[in-house]
Amino acid sequence: MSIVANKKAFHDYFIEEKLEAGIALEGWEVKAIRAGRASIKESYVVIRDGEVFLFGMHITPLLAASSHVKPDPVRTRRLLLHSKQISKLIGQVERAGYTLLPLDLHFQRGRIKVEIGLAKGKKQHDKREAEKERDWVREKARLMRVKV
């Protein structure tokens, strides 16, 4: 079940490969995400010292959060992946010029997971071509409904 999706990533990038990762969260963050107060629109993934981190994910704290906790809505969060997966990502990002982006935040068996994508940037003409293709598919579906 998806909590929040990054639709902008599909518009700006070609997604080559998808990978699911755990995310290290604090208690107040889990409660806020369950309440639907998260955004991954402007976030990105970086690999540093053999670890994977999520930057720019915004989680708005709940008003009923504990008073002894000082919430930081945009703190850097660590992603949990196997070492083989991390080494594969390091090779592809450094050698092939790919970018890592969060695509989706979802629940899996009660845990919050993030789907990250290995992406290559689109040029402006690629974005226009994708938009034309989407419009044509939508128009074709509309015409098929009218004829039936």
Molecular structure report:
The protein has 148 residues and is of the alpha+beta class. The chain has four helices and nine strands, in the order βαβαβββββαββα. The chain has helices at residues 7-12, 27-34, 83-96, 124-147; strands spanning 2-5, 13-23, 38-39, 44-48, 51-55, 58-59, 77-80, 99-108, 111-121. The strands form two sheets. The protein has a seven-stranded antiparallel β-sheet with strand order 1-8-9-2-7-5-4. Strands 3-6 form a two-stranded antiparallel sheet. Strand 4 (44-48) and strand 5 form a beta hairpin. The radius of gyration is 18 Å and the shape is globular. The model has no long low-confidence stretch (mean pLDDT 87).
In short:
This is SsrA-binding protein. The protein is α+β, with helices and mostly antiparallel strands.
Kindly list the characteristics that best describe this protein.
148 residues, alpha+beta, seven-stranded antiparallel sheet, two-stranded antiparallel sheet, 4 helices, 9 strands, globular, RNA binding, SsrA-bd_prot
Q: Residue-averaged pLDDT, rounded?
A: 87
Q: How much of the sequence is in beta strands?
A: 35-45%
Largest sheet data: 7 strands, antiparallel
Structural class: alpha+beta
Query: What string gives the helices and strands in order?
Result: EHEHEEEEEHEEH
- Overall strand count: 9
Count of separate DSSP helical elements: 4
Distance between the termini: 34 Å
Low-confidence stretches: none
Give the C-alpha Rg: 18 Å
Q: State the shape.
A: globular
Q: Report the helical percentage.
A: 25-40%
Strand order across the largest sheet: 1-8-9-2-7-5-4
Keywords: Cytoplasm, RNA-binding
Pfam family, one: SmpB
InterPro entries: SmpB (IPR023620), SsrA-bd_prot (IPR000037), SsrA-bd_prot_CS (IPR020081)
Protein name: SsrA-binding protein
